[in-house]
Specification:
With about 140 residues, this protein is an alpha/beta fold. The chain has one domain: 3-Layer(aba) Sandwich (Rossmann fold), CATH 3.40.50.2300. Helices cover about 40% and strands about 20% of the residues. The chain is built from 5 helices and 7 strands. The chain has helices at about 15-30, 40-50, 65-75, 90-100, 115-125, and strands at about 10-15, 35-40, 55-60, 60, 65, 85, 105-110. The strands form 2 sheets. The protein has a 5-stranded parallel β-sheet with strand order 2-1-3-6-7, with helices on both faces. α2 packs parallel to α3. The chain is globular and about 35 Å long. The termini are far apart. The relative contact order is 0.19.
Amino acid sequence: MQHPASPIRVFLADDSALSRLRVAELLAAQGMVVAGQAETPESAVSGILATQPDVAVLDVQFENGTGMQVLRAVLKATQAIPFIILSNHAEPAYRERYLAAGAACFFDKHTEFYQLGEAVATLAPQGPVNQSVSSS
């Protein structure tokens, strides 16, 4: 059973270790915790289903696959985990495709990165953590 004051648990799926580190630091600064990380679509699907995070943050492109594979596989198994897409591939066609497939939000890594924390807090089942969330 999760205590109401428990931190928001986020799973990070991105083939870039540097991107995962930046996201983890952003989330930690807002009182959230990383429940797991993956750098391949296969490990992302198994990791997300095993950890059942409050929110999953997913990249579009992996070295050996796509975020769409992850999104579809997880949503087929459970629709309880909201997905936020965070990618360098933020063209309108990608945004439309991922949002239509079930992602809750889609952010550009370069221009919308700092909106991620507020989006995670809003989408988590327990709601925003008890602190002010700013977006730069």
